[in-house]
Write a structure and sequence with these properties.
The chain contains nine helices and ten strands. By secondary structure, the chain is of the alpha/beta class. The longest helix has 14 residues, at 115-128. Residues 236-240 have low confidence and may be disordered.
Length: 240
């Protein structure tokens, strides 16, 4: 795709160190453009999840982050969180209300919407992900794939401009993975995919960023990055 204009995410010089002294991010520069899907690749512990947790202020390091033209800081964190929808690796971390509909409406209610409006947005989001029929179900009765869809619906109900998904194929069987790919392809938001699943990345992303030891080791077309780091072969051999 042709990239133009101001990035929807612009990160400059991001650094973060954990309390035990571990340097998790060591000067990250990153851009995401409107309508773009980017895969974040790299070994476990390379900084990928730490990086995305900075994008809506769940972690805070040195450097600058702008989201949709808003400089992220303590006073703008709530604004930024309306722009970025985070879908975590374990859907159970996001699903905690008695019913699916209540879960999906939780975010809009917290934004201050009237109950009727929040429920309307929740129903629309469930329809968008093909889970309207499950509105009255308890989340723990759902399959892993259904839980992932409901977690995404909970994010979509807040009408974000950007989706960040951390290892979204975890716990999903091949049919559920394919269903998730089709869903994500249908969504207009810019997307960041943190993933070890090269087939999933190839289905959705054209660009990849490779993290290693808290730095961006390389960025470019997905296939070039996979080949450069022998990433597809390594995961076939290692079974990860």
């Amino acid at each position: 795709m042709t990239r133009s204009g101001v990035p929807v995410i612009a990160v400059r010089g991001l650094r973060f160190q954990y309390e035990d002294g571990t340097v998790a991010l060591d000067g990250i520069d990153f851009d995401l453009h409107a309508g773009e899907t980017v895969a974040l690749l790299g070994p476990n512990g390379s900084g990928k999840t730490t990086f995305v947790l900075h994008l809506n202020g769940l972690l805070s390091g040195a450097g600058s982050i702008e989201v949709c033209g808003i400089a992220l800081g303590s006073e703008t964190r709530a604004q930024v969180r309306q722009k970025i929808g985070m879908v975590f690796q374990d859907s159970d971390d996001q699903l905690f209300m008695p019913t699916v509909l209540e879960d999906v409406a939780f975010g809009p209610l917290n934004l201050g919407l009237a109950p009727e409006e929040a429920l309307a947005q929740a129903r629309a989001a469930l329809e968008q992900v093909g889970m309207a029929r499950a509105a009255a179900k308890a989340p723990y009765h759902l399959s892993a794939g259904e839980k992932r869809r409901v977690a995404i619906a909970g994010v979509l109900a807040m009408e974000p401009q950007i989706l960040v998904l951390d290892e979204p194929t975890t716990y999903l069987d091949p049919p559920a993975q394919q269903s998730l790919i089709e869903l994500l392809e249908s969504l207009p938001q810019s997307k960041i995919l943190v993933t070890h699943d090269t087939s999933f990345a190839r289905a959705l992303a054209r660009r990849a960023v490779f993290f290693d030891k808290g730095r961006i080791a390389a960025a470019g077309p997905l296939d070039e990055i996979l080949n450069r780091f022998h990433w597809e072969r390594r995961h076939t051999v290692e079974g990860t």
